[in-house]
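hey so i finally got around to running the thing on that chain from the lab meeting. sorry it took forever, my laptop kept dying and i had to restart like 3 times. anyway pasting the input first so we r on the same page abt which one it is
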Amino acid sequence: TQSTWGPWQPVWAPDAGKFYFVNATTLATCWAVPEDQQPHDPHLAEIRRELTDILETSGPVATNGAPDARADGSAATDPAPEIVVEPTVSGPANAADAAGAAVSAGAADVMDSNASALQADAEGLESQGLERRRSRASVVLEPLNVSDDLDAIIVATELEDGMPPRVVGTQNTAGDVLTGTLDFLIGKLVGDAPANSRFLEVFLLSFRDFVTPLSLLAELALRFDEAPLGSHVQLRVLNFAKKWMKTCPQDFLSDEHVYEGMRALIGLGNENFAMTAEALQRTLIETRGAALSVSAVQFSEVAVSSGVWGMMESDDGHRFLGLNSEAIARFIALAESECYRAVPAFEFVLLNSKHDGRPTPHLLRYIAWFNNLSQWAASQVLACGTVKQRGKVIARLVTVCELLANKLHVFNAAMALLAALSQTPIARLTASWKVLSASTKRTWRAVQDLLSHTHNFARYRAELQRCGVPAVPFLGVHMQDILHVRECVPNDVDGRINMAKFTGICTFVTVLEHYQRTQYAFKEKVTESKDFRAVSVYFRELCFLGERDLFAVSRAREPPVARVE
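ok and heres what got predicted. didnt touch it at all, straight out
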């Protein structure tokens, strides 16, 4: 907020017994505003001197919930790290604005005898026609969809010997942490006050980008040791450990040192929280028993020379064409949803991380499902020896793709079939595409338009929002959103961890989680029908050709036409 000190906001430092200044633009701190950065208007300079006299003689403005401040500026009790609010106003400036008063987080009502005097001075500034405007801290907010109606930024500072207080964290009035040092963030997790549930979720999904799991365990153990025996802080450390194990069990499967470190941390609670510690030890052991579930569909890559491919060619697509299109779409929907819903949220974040060696088995399996389904569909087309049969298989795949996209809203599987029919070995089969009916071609173009990458998949995004649940999003689009934020927004701001960035990433993950909560539930008469059982048997084990073999078979089915010079 611009003030009579320019961008510099005066803040009372109780431990030092005087004011320091925080730059509202850069969050730099100093004991005195640099001369070359002060306003040059003589009238403003006079007002600034008058306000300075009021501040220095009266001390800070006291507020609800803040430590009691005496007239000499000393604090009645040892204050916690200073919390400074930089308010935003659209009408007449208030007393806290004019004074740049120090207030504790959440306190907004000014309760001091100096308020009326400061209000008069602030109204004097208003009468001069000066415009007050909000200034943003050096935190990248706009790309992360953070609301523009935040009315303040709260700054947490730490006082160092002989130095102006150092900014260790920032947050908005909604309680969202914007930036912070690691010590500040851990204090928010396991401090005297309960942690914000959203912040806890964001931290667990993203902390590996700025601290290793082993280092985090060491920090938590230190907090536990420093806290009074049996205190809320110690209990919060143990509760955080429980949440960690439930949210990210892979951390304890992939690294034996992290597993042993968690055992040691839990062991610290044996004396005062015996039952809790015992339950946590059981939870830790259970993470070792976690395993991937068996997929309903097993894929295997085969060579052109194999007997399996020979059997597919001899079948000439008749078995696939004998299946019911709706039964195929429903079976794929169930298999896709099962695979998608098994992916833990933190794997969506880890896959786009630059750090190697982080296990994401569920997500890698889901990506493999997409690739294998696409390769199987292409292979099924090329297994047919005649143009007519290939045209029939293409038409059937277009129908299934349309059902998945428009009726069942399984966009990921629909995109897999779209990719299969769009890849070069299939798209080049001109003669096979010509036998499609006019209505099938219209359906194909409609599906292409819906899942087009035009305007960053605008039509798909609109349809996903409109259709509701159950649905399965197209994973590639949302992983690209996460990657964009990860690559384009810095991890730190002025030496503090940029939690606004990680909150933005987790907002995209929340979208993916939303569609994981609801599964497809077809009626029993559907899943027990003859058509559905036939599809289940057919899809139990599917084979496909590799890319090189697909090209070779495609050229053999419809040889390239020689160019005429």
